[in-house]
Amino acid sequence: MMIGAVLAIVLTLAGAILAVGARNIVHAVFGLGICLCGVALAFLVLGSPFVAAMEVLIYIGGITVAMVFAVMLSTVGREEPREGMAKRVLAAIGALVFFGAGVAIILGMPEQITAPVTPEEAWSVEQIGRDLLNRFNLVFEALSLVLLLAIIGAITIASRSDESHDPTAGEGDS
Amino acid sequence: MTLHAWMVFALTLFCIGLYGVIARRNLIAILIGIELMLNAASINVLAINYFVSPEPAVGQIIVLFIIGLAAAEAAIALSIILGVYRQRASIDVTLLEELRG
Amino acid sequence: MNHELLALACVTAPLLGFAVALIGFRRRHSSAAAIVIASGLVSLVASVLLLITARPEAQAFTARWFMIEDFSIEFGVLLDGRTLIMGSVVALITLCIQVYSLYYMASDPGKGRFFAFLALFEWSMLLFVYSANLLQMFIFWELVGLASFLLIGFWYEKPSAVAAAKKAFLMTRVGDVGLFIGLILLFQTSGTLDVLGIANIFEPHGLPESIAPQRIELIAMLLFVGVIGKSAQFPLHTWLPDAMEGPTPVSALLHSATMVAAGVFLVTRFHGLFLDAPTTMTTILWIATFTALLSSTMAMVAKDMKRVLAFSSISQLGFMLMGLGAGSLFAGYFHLTTHAFFKALLFLCAGAYIHSSGTNDLIAIGRAGAARRMKITTIGLVVGGAALAGIPMFAGFFSKEHILSALHGPGQMIFKIGAFGAAFMTAYYTFRMVFLIMRPNPNSQATPDEPAYPHDDAHGPAEPLAMILPIIVLSLGALVIGFFGDKIGAILHVEHIHHPTIGEMAPAVVVALLGVVLAWIDFGRANAKQRGFVSLVPAAEKLFEKRWYIDEIYNTAIVRPVIMIAKLCYGTETRGLDKGIDSLAYSTAKVGREVARGHVGRLQLYIGVAVVVVASLVFYVGMR
Fold first, then answer.
1. What domain range includes position A78?
2. How many domains does chain B fold into?
3. Rounded distance, CA C315 to CA C291, Å?
4. Distance from C594 to chain A by nearest Cα, in Å?
5. Could you read off the pLDDT of C303-336 as tens digits, one per residue?
6. Are C359 and C436 in contact (CB under 8 A)?
7. Do A154 and B76 touch (CB under 8 A)?
8. Which of C190, C182, C167 lies closest to C241 in space, CA to CA?
9. Would you say residue A145 lies in a domain?
10. N or C: more exposed end of chain B, with fewer CB within 10 A?
11. What is the C-alpha to C-alpha distance for residues A71 and A77, in angstroms, rounded to an integer?
């Protein structure tokens, strides 16, 4: 348990730092993958194996791969100028200030809770399925609609190439 | 591991994502930062769910919704990035400043 | 017959006619006219059936409009003697005028609109007359004002018509303010909006102890202010002559049985209340007598045929109010009824002459030989004139006798003298009009204000059926309605009608005949100079022609100062306030442009700043 948690945290943070710090965008996507593995591990530790599985399936299997495709279709192999030092420092300051605020809030919370308050069987996939299709049916349907719209929107936006000139045309990439 | 520790961990992940969003100039990198922030939120929800929730299934369902929305958001964002690239041959966010006064 | 259904049909048919004609058939003129006339016919049949089958007691059919706590406001139809007779008269006159307009407005490009407005007018007037509720009464009173505005200004491309419509609307509005306050006070005093309920409070003579007499005086006075405006009494009478700018059928409709009659009808409606307010009654007598005399003098010198009739309307309304003011409901109401017939008849005759001669000028119409060409119209003119002048056996004679005999109370001698004077002048100016049209002669020294433009009558008859039929119907009405006095009294539940004796009648007859004879000497006999006895005193003639300069006085004393104030406000508005607001807007836009320059277009900078600000807020809130 403890080891799992520590491993999850280390993986996650290391992956995250790689994801935001890597100069090469492909490396950054790779870092994101590592980070998401760590998050999935954290979910497992937090007693939600089903959500962890979904995380792996959708994030690592779907989103990360889609990003790789996007990189391939756009800037692959191109060396980009690094961000200016001042910008990075300012961004770090902003993030740190936010971090400080968050820590202040968390430490302001009253009690230290160390153990789960619910029995294990309440975490079952069956319970999730029931709730999803009964209590949260409306949200579920709304989300499916959102996904449908996202698919249609993505196709529409990405395929609209008729009026704009295609800079990659003639360069041989498909 | 206490709830506080988990929450600080989630906050750290969130701030790293925030840094990415603010600092990076590549649109895909910014999108990666956003994904990190969303994951931080998911960890936070699950941690609270694990430690204090009377109905543990609810937190997991919320996280599932977050994942679903993140997928939708990523699809749209990537298609927009491709559209931008087609039009300007670049996905550098600092060049997208047409609304400047 | 089911009275409720009949009443409903009577008051909704014109509304339907109006809506259908205006929405569906504004450009299809004949269809619009047919629809409106059909609706008018329905109203007439329904109201006459209601009148014939009327129950002796009053009936009210109401429906709730809305409620405020336990107080419900209802709309409905009240059927009692006063409303039944008036409703039938209104429906009959309106139908006659609608038929008449078929030909009169035949070639007008706005014929469909005209008929729709006629229906609107009829609807408002009928529901005003039949109204069972004070609020409903006021609403339809105002709707009558609106419809008359639309009709007077029907030829809206004519500036004088627009000005006349505006004037009529504004002048009556002055009175309406008084009326509205009066109605509110009446409601406050009686605690009910129900017309019948209010009538029951005041109808048994003698005031309820709970109501202060001063309060009743105040209410009656305020109601009478509304009547002054609507029924064109001095000092708010100046709109009526100008309202002649509208088409002649409109003048016939507005100034005989309907719009101006609404004011008098209001007094008859609340006559019980007025009887409890003796001071107001005396005021009514003074104003009515003065108005009757004043407008008669103006009618004696007017050359415009419609204006003569307009002045005569004012004066006859004064007569009605004299009868009511003297305390006789029957006299005033009877005159209201008879006047509706013969005045509408006279206006329609005038319209026929004007239509064929192309001028409003009496002298020009006479010289154009209209009387010879249009025999039936001329007969109608003589019948109407005789009724107006009070020649025995014609309608106006009976009702005028009743009014004169009602003026017998103590201290009413002066009003009786005034009434005789007005009756004399009425006979004189009426037959001046008749003789000027019928007996033009080559030695005449009268000068027309405008020449005649006879129509090219090759394409149409001089007296088409659509014009002649209403004139015949109304002539018969003017001939026989006078004999129905007792019947009307019975329907009104007047216990004992005081029938004037021969001895009482004689002076009035003598006075009327005197007027006719004088008119004959001045205008009628062969080789008459046709100048009138008023011209012996040029100053008086000038005064009368200028309508006692009342319009000029209003212009100088009221209109010009108001316009000056308006101009001042306009200047302040445009040069002061507007400019200030403008510069505020311009400077805002300028600031916006300047600030936009600092807008760098760096999305990430904004996110970062937002994050820092949120975090600082959290710190700040956390520290407290």
1. 1-82
2. 1
3. 6
4. 26
5. 888 888 889 889 889 888 888 888 888 888 888 8
6. no
7. yes
8. C167
9. no
10. C
11. 9
Side chain identity at C122, as an amino acid letter? E
**95-114 in chain A: CB under 8 A from chain C:** 95, 97-98, 100-102, 104-105, 108
Give A-chain residues touching B83 at CB under 8 angstroms.
157-158, 160
CATH code for the domain of A39: 1.20.120.1200
Could you tell me if residue B32 is inside a domain?
yes
- C527 dihedral zone (left: phi>0; alpha: psi -120 to 50; beta): left
Question: What is the domain count for chain A?
Answer: 1
Q: Is residue B46 part of a domain?
A: yes
Name the DSSP letter for residue C93. Answer: H
Please answer whether residues B39 and B13 qualify as being in contact, where contact means their C-beta atoms are separated by less than 8 angstroms: yes
- Is B92 in CB contact (< 8 Å) with chain A? yes
Residue A91 with chain C: CB contacts under 8 Å:
604, 608
Q: Which of B21, B96, B101 sits opposite C607 (nearest CB)?
A: B21
* In-domain check, residue A6: yes
Alpha-carbon span C47 to C125, nearest angstrom: 13
Which is higher by pLDDT, C447 or C51? C51
What ipTM does this complex have? 0.89
Q: Which residues of B touch A154 (CB under 8 A)?
A: 75-76, 78-79
Which of C604, C383, C425, C609 shows the shortest CA–CA distance to C514?
A: C425
End-to-end alpha carbon distance in chain C: 84
Whether B1 and A2 lie within 8 Å, measured CB to CB: yes
Contact present, C205 and C197 (Cβ < 8 Å): no
Query: In b/e form, how buried is each residue of C319-339, taking b as 16+ CB within 10 angstroms?
Result: bbbbbbbbbbbbbbbbbbbbb
Residue at B16 is within a domain: yes
Structure tokens at C494: 């007047």
Domain that holds residue B51: 3-95
Instruction: Kindly state whether residue A155 falls inside one of the protein's structural domains.
Output: no
Q: What is the mean pLDDT of residues C191-201?
A: 81
Tens-digit pLDDT profile for residues C482-505: 888 888 888 887 777 777 777 778
What's the CA gap between C442 and C451, in Å, rounded?
A: 16
Specify the 3-state DSSP secondary structure of C202.
Answer: helix
- Nearest in space to C308 (alpha carbons), one of C402, C399, C384, C377: C384
Q: Are B71 and A63 in contact (CB under 8 A)?
A: yes
Question: How many whole angstroms separate alpha carbon C326 and alpha carbon A139?
Answer: 82
pLDDT along chain A (174 residues), means of 10: 88 92 88 93 88 90 89 71 79 88 82 61 76 90 92 84 50 38
With respect to residue A44, please indicate whether it lies within any of the assigned structural domains. Answer: yes
CATH number for position B77: 1.10.287.3510
Residues 6+ apart with CB under 8 A from C390: C396, C397, C400, C401, C423, C426, C427, C508, C509, C512
Backbone dihedral region for residue C446 (phi beyond 0: left; psi -120 to 50: alpha; all else: beta): beta
Residue B100 falls within a domain, yes or no?
A: no
> Between these two residues, B34 and C444, which has the higher pLDDT value?
B34
**Nearest residue to C357 via CA among C304, C313, C308:** C304
- Residue pointed to by tokens 């791969």: A65
Residue type present at position C167: K
Helix (H) or strand (E) holding A86, with range, is helix A85-108
Give yes or no for a contact between C380 and C370, defined as CB atoms under 8 angstroms apart.
no
C621 Cα to chain A: minimum distance (Å) = 10
C407 CB-near residues (< 8 Å, 6+ apart):
C322, C326, C415, C416, C419
